[in-house]
Amino acid sequence: MAEGQRRLRADAERSIRTIMEAAERVLTANPAATIEQIAEAAGVARTTVHRRFASRDALISRMTRDAWAQIGAAVAAARPATAPPLVALHQATASILEIKSRWPFALGQPSDDPSTVRTREEVHAGCELVLRRAQQAGLVRPDVDLDWTRRVYLALIDETMHGAAEPTGDPDALAARILDTLLHGAAPRP
User: Cα angle vertex 116, ends 135, 120, to 5°?
Assistant: First the structure.
């Protein structure tokens, strides 16, 4: 019986993932899309969507929570406390760009879900930690306001994702460009 229950759980999780991925595509194209349109794009019945999610808002909340969880995992995997600061920044930036390209609608949604709020706070803390370590390593001027630097860094990521109709380019190359802009601006190199 336990094996059958596991299979049901795996099937249910695949169904949820399929619905969320379809919802992301549909809602990115049309933020007013209905559950029926999402179900059709997912290749499931409307009742299947309602069985997995109590409402359209519950679906969007889950999408947002999962997308932020992916970003949180990417930041943690970049090892902001132990990896060399530039390595951690580059790895986190490239990973975040990839995640943001897959979940533009979900990551653009406000959320007061406690889990999502906590994950966002952890992401910002990891960012502040690696920027502080970069400052201690002499990569960032000692007089720079790190809160401002963090906000500029996040704005560069957002502009990279939303400044063009479709962000193009290798995430590693885009991450290098973001970090070069953050650390060197547009000034000529000495």
Answer: 10
